[in-house]
Amino acid sequence: MDLEQTATQEGDPDNGADTTFSIRVARNGKIRALVKKALEFFQANPDRPLVLYSSPSEISASTIPKLISVVEIIKREYLKGYPVGLHQFNQLLFEERSQVPVEGKNRASALLLALEGSSQCVPPQ
C-alpha cells in the first residue's frame, strides 16, 4: 500500500498535547485504501485528530477532487457506527510563485517592469 503517513507532535507531550496523524492523498493513491486507513485510525484512536492533505501545488489541483471524495466517504461510513463526535475543519492554502522578484513594490509595478525592455518586438513603422 503506497500511503504516506506521518505523525506530527503538536505542543509539549508532557502537557497532554495530542499527536496529530496525517494521511497525504496522492494522485496514485487508491480511494478505498485511504478510506480504510482513516477508518482504522478512528477505531483505534477515537479521541485523536486526523489530517488529510494534498500537496505539492503542481499536482494538488488534480488531487483535490480525490481528497474531497475521500473525506465525504469517511464521513458517511464513520457516521454509520457513531452518530456524533465527528467534526470537519477545512483549510485551503496556496503558494504564489513569481518569476519577477518583488522588492518593496506592488505586483502591478513588478509586472510593468518585467514587460518593458529592449528585447521586446517592435512593430515595423
TrEMBL record:
Region feature (Disordered): 1-20
GO molecular function: nucleic acid binding
Protein name as catalogued: DNA/RNA-binding protein Alba-like domain-containing protein
Domain DNA/RNA-binding protein Alba-like span(s) in chain numbering: 23-92
InterPro entries attached to this UniProt entry: DNA/RNA-bd_Alba-like
Pfam family, one: Alba
Domain of life: Eukaryota
Species in which this protein is naturally found: Pisolithus microcarpus 441
